[in-house]
Design goal:
By secondary structure, this protein is of the alpha+beta class. The chain has helices at residues 2-10, 18-36, 40-53, 57-69, 73-89, 93-109, 232-258, 265-289, 294-297; strands at 111-117, 126-129, 132-133, 142-145, 148-155, 162-168, 173-178, 303-310, 315-322.
Length: 323
């Protein structure tokens, strides 16, 4: 605020233009209305505009009084110091005495606060007082502050904000130890920490699906490959055919012995024997006819199962198999 006061004082070096003087009168009139309504903060802002546009000793003293009444003693102290210097320049001894007395009273009421930042605070830590950043050089020394409640915040990269509340009375002088907040939870590891190298992972090998092929039934491992004309299939055909001939002969003999007597069991047995013989003989013929050559016989598999279904009035014979 001392810097603000110095800059305002510098405005006395130039003469105000007619437009500036007219605007200053409007701001002064508005400030009087605001003070009557008890709006001191707004009234002080209007008086600051008057001091900027047309700086004069009476309006400056009014601004210093308004700021002091608002409780901003640090700012009021700067305005009273400027009013003292202006009264001395303008050879106004009464105004100068008034400004000096009010300046001394204000200085006694201004509070002092010393902020001591912890020695282990990381480099770059920033301290804010009521959202205003403080110069690092001001830490550790008593700083003038307005009486009342204040909030001190310590900010540092990688740490949570540390907040402190302090209440100052008129003329108070306090010391507050401050430090950075705890490390931010879940923050990424520092650059100094070793980082495991990234090992490239080879993509999975493509799955090769074989093309579909025709399946040829393989001969049983227990079977002995056929050689020459007498393959297993032809041998089975001769056996089945021979058994069929025998069964046919037996069935014919039984039927002839029954002499057409339906109640004779020999007739039933003969019929069954004839049917079985026919199935066996038919199977033998099929085996002989469908037998493959020598090379094919080593790779082929033939399974023929004779079937016979005998009912009360008919008998059905057939053959089922896998070729």
């Amino acid at each position: 605020m001392l810097l603000v006061a110095a800059l305002t004082g510098a405005s006395t070096a130039r003469a105000a233009s007619p437009e500036d003087r007219a605007a200053a009168r409007r701001h002064s009139s508005q400030a009087e209305k605001l003070k009557k309504r008890g709006q001191l903060a707004e009234a002080c802002q209007e008086l600051e505009q008057v001091e900027r546009l047309d700086p004069k000793l009476p309006s400056l003293i009014e601004l210093a009084e308004c700021t002091e009444q608002l409780g901003k003693l640090v700012e009021a102290q700067a305005w009273w110091a400027l009013a003292r210097d202006r009264a001395k320049r303008d050879e106004k001894p009464q105004s100068k005495a008034k400004a000096e007395a009010r300046l001394a009273a204000t200085q006694k009421r201004v509070a002092r606060l010393t902020l001591q930042l912890a020695a282990n605070a990381p480099a770059g830590a920033q301290v804010l007082s009521d959202d205003a950043a403080l110069d690092a050089a001001s830490l550790g020394s008593a700083q003038p502050m307005n009486p009342g409640e204040h909030v001190i915040v310590v900010k540092a990269a990688g740490h949570d904000d540390a907040k402190y509340s302090v209440k100052l009375a008129d003329g108070d002088n306090q010391t507050l130890a401050i430090a950075v907040g705890p490390a931010t939870a879940g923050r990424a590891p520092s650059a100094a920490a070793p980082v495991a190298p990234v090992v490239p992972v080879a993509p999975p090998a493509p799955t090769v699906v074989p093309a579909p092929t025709s399946v040829v039934p393989a001969a049983s491992q227990d079977a002995t490959p056929a050689t020459g004309w007498w393959s297993e299939q032809r041998t089975a055909g001769v056996i089945f055919g021979s058994a069929g001939v025998v069964a046919l002969g037996a069935g014919s003999a039984l039927c002839i012995g029954a002499q057409g007597d339906v109640s004779d069991r020999r007739l039933t047995g003969g019929a069954i024997s004839l049917a079985a013989g026919g199935v066996l003989f038919l199977s033998g013929v099929v085996l002989l006819v469908s037998a493959p050559s020598t090379e094919a016989a080593q790779q082929a598999r033939l399974s023929v199962i004779p079937t016979l279904h005998v009912a009360r009035e008919a008998a059905v014979l057939g053959a089922a198999g896998e070729f």
